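so the lab meeting is tmrw and i was supposed to have these ready like two days ago... anyway. pasting both below. for each one the top line is the aa sequence and the line under it is the structure tokens. i havent really looked at them closely yet so no promises
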Amino acid sequence: KKIVPFYDFDHPGGSAVFSSVHDLVRFGMFHLKAHLPNQKAILSDESIDEMQVGTADMGNGNRYGIGWATCQNSYGYRVSWHNGLMGGVNTTLMLVPDEKIVVTVLANSNTNQHEIICREILSDMLPKYAENLAIASAKKKSNTDQTAMEFVPTSELIGEWNGEIVTYKEHIPITFWFKENGDVVVKMGDQLKTLLNDVVFRDGYLFGRMIADIKTEDANRHPYHLHITMKLRDKVLNGSITAITCPKDRFGNALSHWIEIIKK
């Protein structure tokens, strides 16, 4: 394992906030309206409630409000939460409003253990949560073989799709060929054809990863892969194509652009 050297961002205030578990728990309790006598009421209780009203659909029963992701039934409980992710850091801040519980976990590594630990803490505190989590985990395990199956394109995908990627510099033409054998061939602009890897088509969304050049200075500061998330809308697939920095000593970030393709 390597220690991540110090790095900073070019958008101070937008992220990269340094905090402690104690401060985050106090922040969470404030958003449960469990105010301490010496705390200044920066937000009214009505505003706090409004922040946790999910208005944007995130899928899988989750919604997004103002700074908080929400779920009305997370293993039997209404929750609000937010995760944090930077190079060498992963965090979780979870609220269970009806039980007045706040759980925060900070990890100084790139791992999913913070989410696992958060669920284990809530399982110890809430027996019904533990019971429902165990049922869901068993169901997920039984579906593992199905999830691991190779990509098999449906008839609605098979064929040629043409469109473009929109960056702040230019519009890049792009073509996808979905083959019956599961191969997805992609050609961006005048670049060589490449394969879309790790392809998944689930609930109307197409996911995949490939190597190509999106030709922007900010993306090309570090080596990267392009990750695709597109939703099928009739004969149109559109969504995001994101340049995600390849892991190395000094971490970069993810830069997203619009992509849309239409079936020929």
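ok protien two:
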Amino acid sequence: MARILAVEDDALVRRCIRRILTRKGHEVIEAAHGPEGLRHAAEQTFDVALVDYNLPMLDGVEVLQRLRELQPGCLRVLVTGQLDLPMVVGAVNRGEITRVIEKPFKSKALVEAVNEVLRTRQIMKDVMKVQEEAASAEERRMLEECLSGEDVQIALQPILHAPDGCVYAYEALLRSNHPVLNGPMPVLRAAEQHGMLSRVAEVVVERCHRWMQVLPAHVRLFMNLHPDELADPEGLIARLHPLAPWAQRIVLEITERSKLQGLDQWERSVEAVTELGFSVAVDDLGAGYSSLSVLAELQPSYIKVDMSIVRGVDHEPQKRRLVELLCRFAEATDALLVAEGVETPEEAETLRAIGAHLLQGYLFGRPSLTLPEECLSQAS
């Protein structure tokens, strides 16, 4: 039935409460004082707490106040012989106490009080469920609204060829102007919640299709893949089909933090996209824990080093040495290394000196919804 915490310093009363309620099918956990009761509450979840007012160390109101913080879903019942105490009345008005039971009580009164509290709890659960379902339906409606209009856009951030500073590619970054789903993370979270990631991917492909029609012919486009897309090779290929004419200029980024081993058919997905001419990049290298295995499994054409490693590379010898080793690895595997998050001229100069092939970061340009008039050929 229910798990009930009974905090009562009188052992006889405590045993009486346990006997009455266990006969009704409830599980009762006893505590002789407030701190003991709170320890129980920290270790397991309770449906109801029956707490005596006159307790040693902490009075019943204070125990219930702390219990509310530990377990907001536990209904809190104060047992007292003084119903008119201002502190008790105030606690009830503030919602810290769900109900008060007057001492001394009879078995029937205790059972009825607990049953009423449990009915209240069920009503609260039902109301909450209805509210959650309504909120979920509204979120889905907003997501459909967001995806069906022009709220979702793709911003471009330049990726420069390190030796000469010319624009080599742009990274396509999701943006949203929706009043509620007003950024990439709210859109993606809602899509994950409602099973609409493929719909988001379709919109992203359509926006990237627009960009490919206006980008200079020598410029590539880096696109991020959601990890779940790799589990559906056929669906992925179908969604990428509109970009097939530009496959040789499009790089699909797979985040290093993706748990590829937990995804069925990811290898088929990677094989399928590369057969169509798309290139593959490992993104955020160094931000997760499976870097070397990801490099070995994907054999990417591009290795994007996470900004956490790039930041401060000009004055932190260990980071410089790590990037040097990654540059050597890239060259040995015919891949190009992209240094992400470059923010200072000193970082850029150091990365050039140690062999980074491509540079990306705010130093060269922030994500923009419009194509620059120049390709930042003079950026340093």
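from a quick look at the 2nd one: The chain is about 45% helix and 20% strand. Residues 107-148 form the longest helix (42 residues). will dig more after coffe
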